[in-house]
Amino acid sequence: MSVLPEQSESVALRFPTGFVWGAATASFQVEGSTTADGRVESIWDEFCRRPGAVHNGDTGEPAADHYRRYVDDVALMRSLGLGAYRFSVAWPRMADLGFYDRLVDELLENGIAPWATLYHWDLPQSLEEKGGWANRDTAYRFAEYASTVVSRLGDRVAGWLTLNEPWCSAFAGYASGRHAPGVQSGSAAIAAVHHLLLGHGLAMQEIRAHAPNTPAGITLNLFPVHPATGKPADLDAARRIDGLQNRIFTAPVLQGEYPADLLADLAPYGLPELIHDGDLETISAPIDLLGVNYYRAYLVEAGGEPESRSEWVGAEDVRFLTSGHPRTEMDWEVQPEGLTELLVSLNEQSPGLPMYITENGAAYPDTLTDDGQIRDTDRITFLDGHLRASHAAIEQGVDLRGYFCWTLMDNLEWAAGYAKRFGLVHIDFATQQRTLKESARWYAAVIERNGLPADG
To answer: Where is the catalytic site (predicted)?
Structure first.
């Protein structure tokens, strides 16, 4: 049975032929089965046990029970017309990758292209006990893991992504400690940045060795950064935040260097000493695609009391301002125009670089009605606006080749627990009942049309 609603609108904004329409998830957020088939403990298993670390003490068990229900979940994907599913492989499952064999085969049997992310934050706890990403050796262990995974799945995966949002792994994990592993050290965070990037470069070598014809790259969470005024202090605040959020990753990967201003800013945290001969050549090896995760933009000004648990190493005194846009339940402003700005800017930096939006979505307080529906019109408005922004970027010459909605299904939203719902599919976590939201049907219609009507 089709899940599509009646559609009478003509298609005014058509996306390019072959545009990839997908949805994304992450292993720890959806799989559950945290002790099955030899899985070892991750930093998030340990972090979830800490009092107050995760909303209401939520854990990765059972999450959305995707490990056991993947066949039904793939059937849901097919009913929506998804052309691709972006999932992450759990490094703690390295001893037994059978689940991913089964998942990939099921996707292919249903006409859905598997897109695999090698690292979406679930570092094995045993490696964290040796220093985690602050330890250079972890980059080499990651390369070994990548070799194992790609040699196993590389004949069937349509696209590879090395890392998801290394900013979060480094700064939320090692600077503020708001995410696993919960470390609070500016020096450890900067070390983690460099070692994550080194791990990316080493993993790209393994992908080239085992799946040379499969497109591969990295996914970064990027934000346009604007100064509140033209005052020199505000301009410098924007420079510092743009450096810590965006350029610290894009410049090494795309240009093979850390910006000079960042090297100077971060010298007290040891960044120059972390860079060994050959590192930047490894990090900047050509990628086939850039994955872009976009949720909002930043408006900043200088001044304010430094935060005690700040992600902003060396810029703790910068204040983040609101600009009056509507907000999601994550308290993030809805700014679709920032996506066009970001994509165009990236294209100016690296002309012709193929890009995919690998995450974009919104959490809202979804409510089941008496007739069993979730009429999430706010999410539809969000997605519609960002798809129009994506189309505007294409019209301005950006080689945007796909869009992966975050997320396929409600899940464990990291430190926010199960309280924040991003999914196209509603999950009753007590029963694991799946219910398509109105946004899922709306997205299915967009996919079927490969475009949008004249008005949202």
So the answer is: 165 (proton donor), 359 (nucleophile)
